[in-house]
Amino acid sequence: MHVQRIAAFADGERGGNPAGVVIVDVLPEPGEMQHVAAEVGFSETAFAAPQGTGWRVRYFAPTMEVPFCGHATIALGAALALRFGDGQFTLQLNDATITVEGRRDGDTITAALQSPPTWSAPAPAELVAQALDLFGYHTGDLDPTLPPALINAGAQHLVLGLRSRELLAAMRYELEAGRALMQAAGLVTVLLAFAETSRRFHTRNPFASGGVYEDPATGAATAALGGYLRDLGWPHGGAIEIVQGEDMGRRSLLYAQIPPIPGSSIRVSGTARLMEHQE
To answer: What pLDDT sits at residue 278?
Structure first.
């Protein structure tokens, strides 16, 4: 089984979040896909097979299947563009139908996904307290303009807005404790965010539920963040830029376009680079 290794949401020739991409005629059994994803070792591997006029897609982390993964979708869009030419591709996920565009301009590959619908809701106080304790934060560390919330754009996240970039850089936690909390709460990741401006955010995404300490670029959480900001009435001006992965040495850039219609899909875009070897 051939696995392409593509870094999504790259910052030029560096950074980005590595994803595995497997394009086959028929999807393997789930157990085999899980085994391949564990061997690849990236936070997610996307598996795609033709279905009708589009593609059937499933995503696997090293220890679990996830319903939607943004960076692996961007990587898949790049792989499909390389194989079939520039275009928009329809993807049938387990619980949603989305699209991804892939385009090549010389050595640069760009991709953009349209997320599943979004929603957000205030986070339960007990969950917030447990998350603060996990990361060693205190209530006073939270940004009151970004209240804790459950956010979703095809996958569930807890968002915690922090008052400073220094607090974000100081993020630490114990992996197994994080996995237990996220699995008990039905979270794919926790999104920690600092608003540098109303349109530029710095984020970190612990992904303990999938056996990964931290993701350097998380498209699903970025889409969910866009929907959350829209629900808040945040002055985003229709688009935001995300800087992620900086504190782990894999600076990544993500862009989200936020239409005004409540609950509507978020467009998340970035560049992709082919990885000659596993970094």
So the answer is: 44
Max intra-chain CA distance, the chain: 53
Q: In whole angstroms, what is the distance from residue 61 CA to residue 207 CA?
A: 10
179-197 average pLDDT score: 97
Q: Is the pTM of this model over 0.90?
A: yes
Q: Of 39, 44, 126, 174, which residue is the catalytic one?
A: 44
Q: What is the pLDDT of residues 126-149, one digit of tens each?
A: 999 999 999 999 999 999 999 999
Length of the chain: 279
CA 188-193-199 angle, 5° bins: 120
Q: Is 13 annotated in the active site?
A: no
Q: Which residue has the tokens 């300490």?
A: 213
| Contact criterion met (CB below 8 Å) for 78 and 43 | no
On the question of pLDDT at 268 being above 70, the answer is yes
Query: Can you tell me the distance from the alpha carbon of 213 to that of 207, in angstroms, rounded to the nearest whole number?
Result: 6
User: How far is Cα 202 from Cα 141, in angstroms, rounded to an integer?
Assistant: 15
Structure-block tokens of residue 154:
């095809």
Domains of the chain, each with CATH number or no CATH: 4-113 (3.10.310.10), 119-270 (3.10.310.10)
